[in-house]
Amino acid sequence: xxxLSPEKCIGCKKCVxxxxxxxxxxxxxxxxxxxxxxxxxxxxxxxxxxxISIERVEKNVDLAGYSGVWVVAETEGLxxxxxxxxxxxxxxxxxxxxxxxxxxxxxxxxxxxAKFTDTLIHHGADRVxxxxxxxxxxxxxxxxxxxxxxxxxxxxxxxxxxGATHAGRDLAPRIAASLALGLTAxxxxxxxxxxxxxxTRPAFGGNIMADIVCPYTRPQMATVRPNVMKxxxxxxxxxxVTIRVPVxxxxxxxxxxxxxxxxxxxxxxxxxxxxxxxxxxxxxxxCDGGFAILEELANxxxxxxxxxxxxxxxxxxxxxxxxxxxGTTVSPKLYFTVGISGSIQHQVGMKSSDVIxxxxxDAAAPIFQIADFGVVGDFHEIVPAFIAEVKxxxxx
Length: 396
Ligand code: SF4
Ligand code: SF4
Hints:
By secondary structure, the protein is α/β, with parallel strands linked by helices. It contains ten helices and 21 strands. The strands form six sheets. The protein has a seven-stranded parallel β-sheet, sandwiched between helices. Strands 18-17-19-20-21 form a five-stranded parallel β-sheet. Strands 12-13-14 form a three-stranded antiparallel β-sheet. α4 (about 140-155) crosses α5 (about 165-180) and α6 packs parallel to α10. One iron/sulfur cluster binds near residues 11, 12, 31 and 46.
């Protein structure tokens, strides 16, 4: 609850300017808070007269009663395989849980998915909750959200991680809203500091990285971008526990019916986030024939062509090829950049790549700060030389 003391207010208007929601107005030289206050807290510390006070009603949560790191698994292709992001989250979840001295659980909801239990355990889970039903064969909010909310309420995990996928981005906020929890979306980094989950994500258009904590509620929840975290090498000797989740779903009561899923056309035959080698071009190759040279290099290397945002904006490449904060996050074994300066927004989407090679004529380009190998010069000369060398090596 927010209160403003008219007696203390000296009418300086600092709070009026500070309120991002425009709910503070001046009346008779005194500030008045109208409807729509979100309790964001921006005004309180700025008031020189200490006229504003926000009383936060902390939920009476027994924080110590919550334990364990949970990963919400996703499958694709009508349960044919577990999505890679699940293994990435298990890798990070394992690290967080070991730091906390807690366990890792994976929640696997779907149709005919129990066959994946061992794989999840081999990748770091101590415990797998398995819920199966034909109604769970595709992600539907009304089926998944009540199940997840019920499990969280019953088992009280300390941390819950979701992939920042279409399903994860829909499911996580629904759970957060239903349980009145915080949620940090699109994280690119997670760690434990003072016992709390430090959730790092780009903010203000990627110009800063924000560290977010959720000290008052449990579980702490985050969605995490695919291709950011590293999955563990599977250990086939790991053992774990399987817990069957009873599922009774009346799909006829759903307000939303999933009729058809239409896949977007991809660049080439491989998805940009599923390939080991990406040759990416930026402003420096946005010229006649620039991307054709990169296609040739990508073909020689057995990879695909990606690009920075400017190449999409200028109409040289489709949006699906864009790597970066507003495009796809990738972590291939080789990320070869040509004519990309390396803005923070682009780096966010590719800096987890195993090996980064940069070609740019500007020696001061930021991309060279994260590149493992850098070549300064004109790509018209350098890239064909690479292509010739790759072809020569392949012919040996
Ligand atoms: Fe009054 Fe404080 Fe607002 Fe200034 S900042 S107008 S003193 S409430
Ligand atoms: Fe505005 Fe935030 Fe202050 Fe509420 S707490 S009055 S929304 S600045």
